[in-house]
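Lab notebook page, bench 4
Experiment: in silico fold of construct C2
Operator: M.H.
Input chain length: 189 residues
Purpose: comparison with the prior construct
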Amino acid sequence: MKEKSYIGRTKEYYMDDDNWVFTPSMWKWVSDPTKLAGEVHVLSKEGEELLERWCDDVAVGYDLCNGSAKGLAAKYSSEQMWELITDTKNGYSAKVIVQVKYGRTDIFERVEKIPYGYCVWNIGRSNFPHEGCVPLAKPKPTEYDWQMCIDTDSLKYIEVGGETLALQILKEASRKGVDRNRFLEIVNQ
């Protein structure tokens, strides 16, 4: 399986330092999302291809004879490319939450609605401290009925419009569990 690629802001982007003579790269394209700070997106195949073409054009550099950049580098500045790639409506990327806890890294991909087969992952707010968001997981088959295992490679999250509603859903999940249908009932009350 091909390794996923991520694009995200660098820690320099979030620094409040007016002493920079040369502005550092404000975003990176990496395979390890823990190397990024703040906003992170997982790239689609199309997003990777577009970014690769843009990087190739940037690498060619500025054409001194014609006085301009070439190809996509002429069309998009670094910040414009960031905006294009991270606008999730374009299909080039999906926003993710990268969470490192207890010696492991979980990556939650943002969704607009709960996918079939997913349920609210009952891990509580202290283990998922993202206001207004609810963690979702896909259960894996287990040997016993009382046991619940989840597929940690396909975690998702959904923004529910406010922390009060998110906490209500998480509380319900801790008591009875919340599948897709129950989630829709709670949200539509």
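Observations: The two ends are 42 Å apart (CA to CA). The chain is about 30% helix and 25% strand.
Next step: discuss at group meeting.
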